[in-house]
Amino acid sequence: MTDITTAPTHIAAALAALAAAVLLGLLVHTSVRYLRADDELRASLRLEWRIRRTWKRQAPMHGLSVKDHTPTTAAQLATKDGRKPEVRELVPKIHTRVDRTGVTVRMRTLAGIGLAELQKAAPYLADTWRCPRISVLPDQPGWLSLRAVRYDPLATTTAYRPDGTVPKDLGTWPVGTDEFATAVKLPLKQVPGVTVAGLPGYGKTSLINGLICRLAPSNAVQFAVADGKASAASEGDYADTASRLFAFVGDDLAEANRLFHKLVKLHRGRYAHIRKALGTTDFWKVGPTPAWPLVVLVIDEAHTYFRDHKGSDPATKKLAALAHENARLVEHLVKKGRSVGILVILATQKATGDALPTFIRDICPVNLSFAQNTADAAVAALGDDIRNWPDVSPVSLRDPAYVGVASMALPGRVGFTRVRTPYVEPDDAARIAEQSAHLTCDPATLLPGSGGPEFVKAA
Ligand SMILES: Nc1ncnc2c1ncn2[C@@H]1O[C@H](COP(=O)(O)OP(=O)(O)OP(=O)(O)O)[C@@H](O)[C@H]1O
User: Fold this and answer.
1) What pLDDT sits at residue 458?
2) Distance from Cα 202 to the centre of ligand 1, integer Å
3) Residue 119's domain spans which residues?
4) Are residues 218 and 197 in the same domain?
């Protein structure tokens, strides 16, 4: 029979043994995890411990705590008569997850401690935790996500070596990887226009060449390029892919005008025939086909074609009239081209209204920007909301380490994401263009009644 006077001692001993067993289990689990990890993961695990160990102390120092003046019922009962219950200091709860690059911390929001407060504290937390970078993202309602990296994964160059296979999905663009090393895709399906902005030499053209290389092996895509930096297809950034372009114009405004007119005519022709040819008035319901390909018009150094020319001499007046008309024609293509399978990609250094007319820029739903010099240029490229996300602003990308990194808004994600785009070697671009040159076809020749090229007739 158990002696009831010794029972509490036994229970306490059993509880202590249980607690010791749990602690031992945790210790073994942690040690095994650490020992089995590689060097990178071990370093991240040490960072995770540092964060967890110091959070309660550090959070209030960084303004991430609130004082709760309302005593809990238990505090009221425990407080002796005549004394006031102590004011409680609440620190947000955190959960951590570790990977080889760093630690993701999910933080519970508290009254008065939300996104703005965490964004403000982020650089100081980065110093405390000895991380080169911390970025803050909204998570589920009531939670924020904080990414603390030991080194910035975006500062490492990546490469894309196109293998010439036909992409399975022509409606998305695998544009690169974010700082969680997650693949990022941009939509092309149902998209009328994409803008790519950024300081010279930060990767705009390489990104577009990468897209051409991905799509070129498909005979359901045709490309036209207007490059404001070159005078002929044999020179400039698109010389390597020239054989895969059904049209190319350089910096000549009149030539560009002819190309834009031709494409507006293509839009009208397609519009007149689409229902009969595709059985629908929405190209993307059927998707690109060799007989009705997606037409990608790239306008690089777009400001060349649209900027205002001031002067009263006849030559300047002519240029001004051409630039004005070019803007109207491209507006037509962006406004009306999507449903018949025309996509316009506009690249420019600064997406301000003088370089890219706002009536074109503001109807392009996909916008990305490499480095920018000023907050105003970042706003012109990505919209006003980028002011609320200073840690991912293109202004913070002004560093040679970030050549090839662009900020963009992604469907389904709040705020903006920095994405490392892979570099495409010009030789690889040339190889793909050469292999797929036989697929090049002027889409106007595919319209019903135009005669059509041999390969479509034979198909
Ligand atoms: N994704 C990338 N990763 C690493 N380096 C890159 C990347 N893209 C471009 N670069 C480097 O930057 C150089 C300039 O790239 P690119 O011509 O694409 O820039 P740009 O923004 O189009 O410049 P510009 O406005 O002068 O045409 C390339 O020659 C290459 O060395």
Assistant:
1) 40
2) 5
3) 49-80+87-151
4) yes
| Tally of CB atoms within 10 A around 219 | 20
Of the residues 109, 135, 151, which one is the last residue of a structural domain?
A: 151
Which residues are near ligand 1 (CB < 6 Å)? 157, 198, 200-206, 237, 349, 403-404, 421-423
Give me ligand 1 centre to Cα 423, in Å. 8
- Give residue-wise pLDDT tens across range 239-268: 999 999 999 999 999 999 999 999 999 999
Any idea what the CATH number is for the domain that residue 275 is in? 3.40.50.300
Q: What is the pLDDT of residue 455?
A: 43
Residue 376 placed within a domain:
yes
> Residue positions in the annotated binding site for ATP?
198-205
The pTM is what? Answer: 0.82
Q: Are residues 92 and 224 in the same domain?
A: no
Tell me which residue has its CA closest to atom 9 in ligand 1.
203
pLDDT value of residue 344: 97
* Helix (H) / strand (E) containing 405: strand 405-408
| Residue of the CA atom closest to atom 25 of ligand 1 | 200
Whether residue 185 has pLDDT greater than 90: yes
Looking up residue 143, the CATH number of its domain turns out to be: 3.30.980
Residues in the chain: 459
A 10 A CB-CB count for 106 gives 16
> Is residue 57's pLDDT more than 70?
yes
**Residue with structure tokens 């399978």?**
341
Q: Ligand 1: which atom is nearest the Cα of residue 198?
A: 21
The string of pLDDT tens digits covering residues 294-317 is 999 999 999 999 988 888 888 889
> Is the per-residue pLDDT at 135 higher than 70?
yes
CA of 147 to the centre of ligand 1 (A): 28
State the pLDDT at residue 309: 81
Distance 409 CA to ligand 1 centre (A): 21
**C-alpha to C-alpha distances, 140 to 143, 414, 451, nearest whole angstrom:** 5, 11, 56
The reply to whether 182 and 253 lie within a common domain is yes
Query: One-letter amino acid identity for 447?
Result: L
Residue owning the nearest CA to atom 13 of ligand 1: 201
Nearest protein Cα to ligand 1, atom 8:
203
Mutate to test the pocket of ligand 1, among 160, 199, 204, 206 (most ligand atoms within 8 A of CB): 206
The verdict on residue 228 lying in a domain is yes
Number of structural domains found in the chain: 2
Residues 418 and 361 in one domain: yes
pLDDT computed for residue 457 by the predictor: 42
Question: What ipTM, to 2 d.p.?
Answer: 0.97
The alpha carbon of 257 and the centre of ligand 1 are apart by a number of angstroms equal to 27
